[in-house]
Prior knowledge:
Layout: H1 2-16, H2 20-28, E1 60-66, E2 72-78, E3 82-87, E4 92-97, E5 105-107, E6 121-126, H3 130-133, E7 135-144, E8 147-160, E9 167-175, E10 190-192, E11 198-201, E12 223-227, E13 249-252, E14 256-262, E15 268-273, E16 279-284, E17 321-323, E18 329-334, E19 346-350, E20 355-362, E21 365-372, E22 380-385, E23 391-395, E24 400-405
Antiparallel strand pairs: 1-24, 2-3, 3-4, 4-5, 6-7, 7-8, 8-9, 10-11, 11-12, 12-13, 14-15, 15-16, 16-17, 18-19, 19-20, 20-21, 22-23, 23-24
Amino acid sequence: MKNVYILGLTAMVLASCGEKKAAETAAETVNKETSPAETSYKPAFEGQTRAEFVTTKTPYEVSVITENLGLAWAVINLPGNKLLTTDKNEGVMHIIDLNNPGKSKVVTGLPKVNVTSQGGLLDVVLDPDFETNRTIYWSFSESLNDEKMNDHTAIAKGTLSADETKVENVQIIYKTFPASNSGLHYGNRLIFDKDGYLFACFGERSSIETRPLAQDLSTPLGKIVRLTKDGKAAPENPFANTPNALPEIYSLGHRSPQSLSFNEQGQLWEIEHGPRGGDELNLIEPGKNYGWPTITYGIEYSEETIGQGITQKEGLEQPVYYWDPVIAPSGSEFYTGNIEEWKGNLFVGGLKTQLLGRLIIKDNKVVGEEHLLKDQNDRIRDMVTGTDGNLYVVGDSGKLYKIAKK
């Protein structure tokens, strides 16, 4: 009883000293990740991995809006309280009117996609001037000369028809090279910045032969690029004056990037798959090298070390956060919706772990993590804060989830 009394007295003292918020945060803490790590590597700094688990205090409810979206790889907002999703395996898009979700539209007219292990129709984003030009941009795996297992990641743009059933005036504006027959690590996420330039991230295609290309400035593999709306290098990119470097490159040393998100401060955050161990959250800055495959917190699936088996090297950036064991992350979203305690938090999909992750980031460090939707048993691909303030989430099952404040 004495211990109980002391704990209660301590809590009251904290509150009386104006630390009520801190006490509430502590009360939300559950524990840390307890699953065995897949590597023996140690973090470079405290809080780089295994943040405290937290639980949401605000009552919310999860509902399924529709179940017929195929393997939904991406979801974004359309004007008029609508959502646009991509179907990885069928190579079409779906439009869901949230005012009448039972009647979704199928959008056709896209170039043929090469559906492989990780290839297919990938991300989609609206032109910043969509309401006047109706232009959309999307990424997909495209066969080279119709050779199914020899392909690259392509970015296309086109005009969404007035009846929202097809894409017209299609142009392919960017392609990665060299092509590969791995069927893996295409990337890709697309996002526009406030200046109207298009960011895209690409994987290094996974093979032992292509892996080193993440450090090669003459190819877009393993890079984040910054483009104009026509697919050309945006002005003032960091390697524009570097001999033999592609002028569109913005950052390098990426393995298999799966998301790009801007926060309210305009910072660009990227999440990528690690190998066995070592999924990464990175804060992206122009010209920086994020290390793959020279440094990593992961190992080969065979349990062998990668390269020299090092996690740090001068001149190479550390991830802000990493997961070991991995969650196999996918799309991400900085939340701006109706649940106050979630505002500014970074949501991320988990494929292997079948979850929706919530990261609390303060001063560019992850200080809390929550795992949601685990009861749905769905590989979570992407999410977006709807114009109605609710969070909409898609997964491999073809379901569209709505998470709303009660």
